[in-house]
Amino acid sequence: MEIRKIGVIGAGTMGNGIAQVAAQIGCDVIMRDIEDSFVDRGIKAIDKFLGKSVEKGKLAADEKTKIMGRIKGTTKMTDLKDVDFVVEAVIEDMALKKSVFKELDALCRPEVILSTNTSSMSITEIAASTKRPDKVCGMHFFNPVPLMKLVEIIRGYSTSDQTMAAATALAKKMGKITVEVKKDSPGFIVNRCMIPHMIEAIKIVEEGIASIPDVDTAVKNGLNYPMGPFELMDLTGIDIAYFVSEYFFKELNKELKWASPNLLKTMIRANRLGRKTGGGWYEVGK
Description:
Number of strands: 8
Structural class: alpha/beta
Radius of gyration: 19 Å
Distance between the termini: 54 Å
Number of domains: 2
Number of helices: 11
CATH superfamily of the largest domain: NAD(P)-binding Rossmann-like Domain
Largest sheet: 8 strands, mixed
Low-confidence stretches: none
């Protein structure tokens, strides 16, 4: 089936990024979120990103207009009834994702593939909330979506070869490099490698071995990483690091190596209590 119209669930950082790259390849996009303010913010984020591309001479002004014209924001799930493909990009909450997929399953045509942008959660469990588990897969994009090349294509227990091939082809059309995750295991490839690295970095600071800036400097210049672990957490959000580490701890036999350090838990509690840390490590102590 030719994919002409794509539904994106969630207008946040990941959702609006996915909507943008889908519109850039000529697809019509329906980007849905639960509040008009969220949708408006997502549309403005896309417009701002494309505007900077125009300023830098990377994109023609008329092309920007065409891309923006392909994106429709909505709060109505029913506006997705005619889409050819769906990418869900809501928060990492299994109950919420299953609820969204159950609703999409009842709404979308039987042949439509339903994909999730989850970074760690079980594709198989999400797919079980539908009557089309063979047409459910993971498409894990990376932040910022328009710039990051990788997409992990994840196979659930019942995901068909045809579904994997279609999702892979779509990602490649978007200009992405794809890898196949053959087994539905928490964290897939990247997060399975990255989260222990983040946990150890936090422990180093927690134990007074080195400061946050020095850990980042050491990792960038000693391991040749483009960003240090704390810089990366500031970009993606420390709540994501916390949620993923807690999910790993629960799903991977409660091994201590996955347990969230106390310093990370303290940061999360402080944010929930309203202390403004910017969601980031570099605001600590200011």
